[in-house]
Specification:
The protein has eight helices and six strands. It is an alpha+beta fold.
Length: 175
């Protein structure tokens, strides 16, 4: 193999990336024509490809790995191999300046018993994962944009109801 890209996956997500009996790792390798070298001690993932590997598929494999690293179920992350699906990762440190503020805003995005996150997913059609200091979104381009805009509004302090109404209006205009 000729080309290599390195990614880092939190150690507690390595098992999810590998999957039971290695099935997730094997599926990524097969779909993208890459070889994954996973260091479970450091969390380093080496994506190895050769001249026969479609560069777009290799990039999609990296996005799948990033999505799993950011807390997504592998089944949802694998959607990134499909045409028209995208991953967007928001680093909460870009919006907030303290650990306390990050924790408070993560709680706002998740909501009581996950209700706010579920409502955003239902309204936008995108999948949302809150993990560590990030919020990740998977979906079609319009869905991802709707979800990111809504999350940014929540981060700026806009009340949930106002955010939901704005998403509903934009969704009607888009679809």
């Amino acid at each position: 193999m000729e080309y290599e890209d390195y990614l880092f996956v939190p150690k507690e997500r390595i098992g999810v990336l590998i999957g039971e009996k290695g099935e997730i790792k094997k599926e990524i390798e097969k779909k993208a024509n890459v070889i994954l070298h996973i260091n479970s001690k450091t969390g380093e993932v080496n994506v190895e490809r050769d001249e026969d590997t479609d560069p777009v598929m290799a990039m999609k494999a990296e996005d799948v790995i990033k999505a799993i690293a950011r807390g997504f179920n592998p089944k949802i992350a694998m959607k990134l191999f499909e045409e028209g699906y995208y991953l967007e990762i928001l680093d909460l440190r870009d919006y907030l300046n303290s650990k306390k503020a990050i924790e408070r805003q993560k709680a706002r995005i998740i909501g009581a018993k996950g209700k706010a996150r579920k409502t955003l997913e239902d309204l936008t059609g995108a999948s949302i994962s809150i993990y560590g200091k990030t919020v990740a979104v998977i979906g079609k381009e319009e869905e991802v944009q709707l979800a990111v805009d809504a999350i940014e509004k929540l981060l700026s302090g806009t009340p949930h109801g106002d955010v939901y109404r704005a998403v509903q209006i934009r969704r009607r205009d888009l679809f």
